[in-house]
Amino acid sequence: MSVPIKDNSSFKLMAQFGHQKLVFCNDSTLGLQAIIAIHDTTLGPAIGGVRMLPYQSVDEAIDDVLRLSRGMTYKAAVAGVNLGGGNAAIIGDHRTQKNEALLRRFGQFVEQLSGTFIASLDIGTTPKDMEYLHMETDHVAGLPKSLGGSGDSAPFTAKGVYYGIKASLKELYGNDSLAGRTIAVQGAGNVGEHLIAMLREENAKVYVSDIVEERMAEVANKYKAVAVSNNNIYELEVDVYSPCALGGIINKDTISKMRCHIIAGSANNQLRNEQEDGQLLLDRKILYAPDYLINAGGLISCYSEIAGYGASRTAVLTENIYEATRSVLRKSIDENVPSYQAANQMAESRIADMRKIKQ
Ligand code: NAD
Q1: Which of 24, 44, 207, 337 could form a disulfide with 83 if both were Cys (CB 3.0 to 4.6 A apart)?
Q2: What residues make up the domain containing 121?
Q3: Number of domains present in the structure of the chain
């Protein structure tokens, strides 16, 4: 029988959002302080990024892992893969405090969780760091190809976004052809470049912006896209605005400027305020393909790596993003609810159904 929760805010948050486990990892000799959150393992082991950041307080790190692990549960559920949601935070500055011993010690803590948590890349960790973890545990995904891993996830993420864009076009215009469609891609990084290549291959007219001007010019020249200033990208009258740079860029200020019909991009946590901004988009009839659904290609490639599938299976699973996006947008329109809410409900419903067959 559990004792009543009085003032332990971590337990309160865990109870509120249904988290299963919060693990504190400490090694004073090495200066390791890390926290692993496991939100839900109904669908499978909890996968999640390992981020290393100089958090100002332990509470801040706890908030981060609780929020992100829950997000991973939803992402895996709606992507149709058999994984749960987790996340880990190593407290410290990755530029000055990261070293082999610290990472391998963290790998030992992951090993102690016996495969209920699978570690992958996040802010402040690199493929090389995953190699160190892998020296202590097999429960790592997103390893380099030389170690039998799936390698760079960006091409898979871009492919998922491409399907998300096509599904949104189909919903709005009745056909998903990219030829002649206008698409503004914000962020010509790893994902952005792969996406632009696919869009141009099918003769879409592409606008591109990036805060790094040389990068923007390089990608624009390579794919015959039109370079635009980042400040003007929201005001472009385009079929699709594709945020592939940073989170929080959909908010009441940017929405008021927008002249696009669809938003579909790879950036995580695009809505600054999920409820308010999701509703504003619905009111303005801008079709929003939920970020965590259409950027799941990277997660899918990790899933293939864990399950031992090859590239063709990864391609099929990524292609499923097309139908999943259509279902979410349809539900959003039919029920007049913001699309992020429709996606959340679909994820929750899959988990609830799978819970029934596990009993
Ligand atoms: P990246 O760092 O390679 O590229 C980001 C690009 O955005 C850079 O070129 C950067 O200069 C540019 N940028 C930064 N701020 C900008 C701004 N204000 N305006 C315009 N451009 C700006 O990152 P990536 O791997 O291409 O990922 C892009 C986004 O997709 C990120 O939000 C990431 O979290 C998300 N995402 C990536 C993956 C993946 O597999 N790589 C998976 C899921 C989600």
Answers
A1: 44
A2: 10-69+83-145
A3: 2
